Amino acid sequence: MPDRTRIRLGARVGGGLVGLALFGGVVAAGTALPLPAVERTPPSALVTPEPTGQQRLCPGGLIGIGAGGSATATSFLGAAQRVSGTTTGQEPVASPLDASDVAAGDGGDGAPTVLTAPGTESGEPVLLAAAQSQSVSVGETVGFSASACAEPGSDSWLAAGSTEVGRTSILLLSNPSDVTATVDLEIFGEDGAISAPGSAGISIVAGAQRVIPLSGLAPDVASPVIHVQSTGGRVVAAIQSSIVRGLEPGGVELTGATAGPGLTQILPGLRVSAVADAEPAPTDPAAPVDPAAPTDPAAPTDPAAPTDPAAPVDPAAPVDPAEPAPEAPADGTPIDAEPEDDSAGADTDTALRVFVPGGRDATLTVGVRPEDGAAGTGLSFPYEAQAGQVTDIPFTEELGEGRYTVTVESSVPVVASARSSTGGGPTSMDLAWFAAPSGPVSGDALVAVPQGPDPRVHLVNLGGTDARAVLAPTSPAAGEATEVALDVPAGASVSIAVAAGTVYRLSSADSLFASVSFLGAGESSAFPVNPANPSASPLRVYP
């Protein structure tokens, strides 16, 4: 190869190497030096929608089944008393729903009522609240019930009632909207999901209420939980539950929706009262028809006869043809034991109802803390709840009479409510279901307190700082109603007696969970205070 060719080739190779070196240096410098950042915020606008008219649906009077001799016919057992108010001082407009499934009955028309109010007044949001209550003593339906008038929605959970022997649960579905609602029900019990023909595609025309006995969909279920979903019109769901033990009424309650599935559920204002004297002697099936009293001449003179547990094997017993005792040893039951009553149940106990939706079991921590109690007081226990099933958890450690806050912390989302009973009044016993608020109330809210015994407002502060709340009456229904201020320590709960038949404005509430409860001789009820409608909150809109 000529020298000139070698020189040219070497120059080309050298130039290539130099170019590669320069390129590598540029790349290294580009990675080492910070590049200029170009940021651009996407265009958006903060828009506050014009609030539309508000609605609250009051479920109406309590309902009886079996009117006119028909096992399925329903009728109102009277009309509920209602209290309502707005922050403008004007009463909301009331209009009845068409309760086509229920007859008026002897107590008059107890049809549900829709309350409407404007969304704003002079540029300021309007708050609306209402509640109802009713005492009833008609046949086997005896007790007191109070419930809040609720805002319609498309998804709600009901955790109350039973369809076992002696228990009646009625599902109330109300559609206050202007279009037909189609409702699907998912029903769960202690054994899991319940396949119920007729539970899907329930049509509720605009401005009407449907009344559905739950026993027709889920018979003999001790612990039902119902998931209500609607399309088209938005509905309000509630469940009326009543109890009869033998021949004795055990109470009635009208329960609205509880909070949806969550890792934490708060149940404010659980009120526990004595029930020991609530079931008088007539509930003992043997008392009025004791066969030994008129037929056994030895009974009055033989003091050992009714008390000696050996009586069933007394050799003299077989010669007495009226003596039923020989059957007792066959099942090991002492002859002086009360006959088993399948309708007696154990639902006089204070208990927590928990449902675990989904496929994962829940590890629960249940806390029961007395109101105004110091930190660390009350009781706390773990519990394993099975997925897809409803569990009623009795509080095995006896709770004394008083007011409590129940908290449920779970490893997976759960639905919860609580039940208590009271006795001692002329109407024997009553029960109350305590649903969980859908969330805390912040800022200002209205709390409607209907007529009833010993009404109280309960507040729970889960925050890390103390909170101060003011309850000021906005309606003149009760002259004794006065403004009260409450200090709610961090992590604690308090309650205050309020005037029945009054609407209060709850101000300066810093994320407090709230409820209203009632308790008297043979009368008990409660309902949660849910946050105000947030539909007019500012929204950030992106193109």
Structure, described:
This protein is mainly beta. It is 7% helix and 45% strand. The chain has one domain (54-275, 348-534). The strands form 9 sheets. Strands 21, 22, 23, 24, 25, 26 and 27 form a 7-stranded antiparallel sheet that branches. The chain is globular.
Report the sheet with the most strands, covering strand number, pairing sense and barrel closure: 7 strands, antiparallel
Tally of individual helices: 3
Radius of gyration: 32 Å
The share of residues in helices is: under 10%
Overall 3D geometry?
A: globular
| Mean residue pLDDT | 80
In short:
By secondary structure, the chain is mainly beta.
Layout of SSEs?
Blueprint: H1 3-32, E1 45-47, E2 54-58, E3 63-65, E4 74-76, E5 81-86, E6 93-96, E7 113-117, E8 120-121, E9 124-125, E10 128-138, E11 141-148, E12 155-158, E13 167-175, E14 181-189, E15 192-194, E16 202-204, E17 208-213, E18 225-232, E19 236-245, E20 248-255, E21 262-272, H2 292-295, H3 328-331, E22 351-355, E23 362-370, E24 379-385, E25 390-394, E26 402-425, E27 428-435, E28 441-449, E29 456-461, E30 467-473, E31 484-488, E32 493-497, E33 502-520, E34 523-529, E35 539-541
Antiparallel strand pairs: 1-35, 2-7, 3-4, 5-10, 6-7, 8-9, 10-11, 12-18, 13-17, 13-19, 14-15, 14-16, 14-18, 19-20, 21-26, 22-25, 22-26, 23-24, 23-26, 26-27, 28-33, 29-32, 29-33, 30-31, 30-33, 33-34
